[in-house]
Amino acid sequence: MASNIKNVVTLIAVGTIAWIGAGAVAVVIDAESKIIWTCVVGAGLGVMGIRYTIRRSRRSGI
User: Where are its TM segments located (predicted)?
Assistant: First the structure.
């Protein structure tokens, strides 16, 4: 099951990196602040998701 957790964390990390990339593009093209904040929140939730997934797997012994 450790491989399953690794796959989940990898998937969340890819999504987080995508939000960071989208945020960088939004800053470069001088997008609306709403779009930039959406990217910031998406990346932040991705980081929280990685931490939560790792912590949950350690607690439950998966």
Answer: 7-29, 35-54
Q: What is the DSSP letter of 61?
A: T
> For residue 1, what is the DSSP state?
-
Range of the structural domain that residue 45 is part of: 2-60
Contact present, 43 and 20 (Cβ < 8 Å) = yes
Provide the domain count of the chain.
Answer: 1
> Is-contact 26 36, C-beta < 8 A?
yes
CB-side neighbour CA atoms (13 Å) of 28: 6
Q: What is the pLDDT along the chain (62 residues), one digit of tens a residue?
A: 567 888 999 999 999 999 999 999 999 999 999 999 999 999 999 999 999 999 998 888 66
> Which pTM was predicted?
0.85
